[in-house]
Every structure is written in structure tokens, then in C-alpha cells.
């Protein structure tokens, strides 16, 4: 988890009167570490392959709500608005799309850039929200390559010429835009708007309920908005409607993708 997640989980632990403990994991191990079940992902379906040791109580790393994940996890109320964007280096000949009011049209325009500019390859990470296999990119003619990298290593890979393009979710893209200003650019959306949330084992409904109540209180008191502003100030620019709703005390907060 990043600083925002750590702060939020420490506050939640204090709220429960328990000791916070960070458990390091990976995308491949995280769901098993939470649920005790080893799974194989096939499209929007999962297959349970066996059992493993449970190591933690909550996945709190900006987990994007995906259909297959709902079959093995229970999610908290939404904690951050997100989307998957197509990213290239700043010197790519492809230019960002002109956004319309139609997200399907914008996605089609973004995919068309892969064909029009003959972008040969898009890299991503298997079984995450930035797995290119989720977004029907094959008809564009571009090649999909799954890489063994962390999410925060995808933008540098493109900057350093490892590949021509990658996919990034909103929190990682916002961090990359700040860290590598002028060296990367967002071409457009590859997914519809999505949400992130904390993941709970289906055997932990009381813990999930306690977190939801705690999180709503954090929003109402402005605590979470201050955390978002501390770590992701650009989020208010890119998703003003989401955070205006939150400001009114009716919606959600933020989280961060796993590094």
C-alpha cells in the first residue's frame, strides 16, 4: 500500500482498537493471502485451484472492482473513481483524442490510435485492471505483452523505450504525470469509468460493515478528502463530480493501486 492507504488503515485499526500490521503481497498472491483460496482467472470467471495460508484481513491498495473479483471477494463502498487510460511517451506521434460526451466513442477513438499510428505493442500486468486482455485490443492489430513489473514501473518502461505504450489506472497515471512531467502523455480511455474499493473475504461481513461505517464517518468529517488532497490533488481536477458528491456527504473517497 502507499501512504494514503497506510494512513487510512491505521485510522481504521485505531477505530477498532487493534494493532495495524502491514502485510506485503503481490497481485498474484493478494487474493489468496486474504481468502485462503488459490484461484485461476479466465475472463470474467474464476476457478479455485486449492488452499493457501490466510495472511491478512483487508486488501487496501486501490483494488478495482472487476466482475471476476466479486466472485471471490466482497468489496467495501467505492473509495475512488478510476478508469484505465492508454499511455505513451511524450515523443510518440500519436496525439490524445478530443473527448466527447460519449465514453464508448472516446474508447473507440483511443483504440483507433493504435491502428492509425501502427503502435506495435501495449504492455500490461496479468490479472489486474491494466491487463490489456480485458479490453478487446486485438482487432487494432497491436500486440499485447504481459510484463512482470509493478504498476509504478509501467510508465518508466515506456519512457525508457521498453515498449511503445502501456495501460495505467487513474491513481498511477496521476502520479506518473506529476513525477515525469513532459515525458509521458495520456492518449485516452480504454475502459469505462470504474471504481476502487477495499476487498474483504466473504467470511468477514462484520469487518466489511465496520469499515463502511468508519469510511462514511471519515468522509462526513472531511478526513478522507484531506487525505486525497495530500496524495492525489489532481484527482479533484479529473473527477470533480465524484468528489463534489463526496463533499456533500453522499459518496466516496480514494485509494491507491498496489506497487
Kindly state the number of beta strands. 11
- Number of discrete helical segments: 10
- Helix/strand class: alpha+beta
Helical content stands at 25-40%
**What gap, in angstroms, lies between the N and C termini?**
7 Å
The string of secondary-structure elements, in order, is HHEEEHEEEHEEHEHEEHHHH
Strand-residue proportion: 15-25%
Output mean pLDDT: 90
Seen as an oligomer or otherwise, the chain set is: single chain
Report the major sheet. 5 strands, mixed
Low-pLDDT runs:
246-259
Shape category: globular
Describe this structure in words.
The protein is an alpha+beta fold and 259 residues long. Helices cover 36% and strands 22% of the residues. The strands form three sheets. Strands 8-7-9-6-10 form a five-stranded mixed sheet. The protein starts with a helix and ends in a 12-residue tail after the last helix.
List keywords for this structure.
22% strand; alpha+beta; disordered C terminus; five-stranded mixed β-sheet; globular
Furnish the topology, listing elements before pairings:
Elements: H1 3-16, H2 27-35, E1 37-42, E2 45-51, E3 59-64, H3 67-70, E4 73-75, E5 80-82, E6 84-89, H4 103-116, E7 121-124, E8 143-146, H5 154-159, E9 165-169, H6 170-179, E10 184-189, E11 194-201, H7 205-220, H8 223-231, H9 235-238, H10 240-247
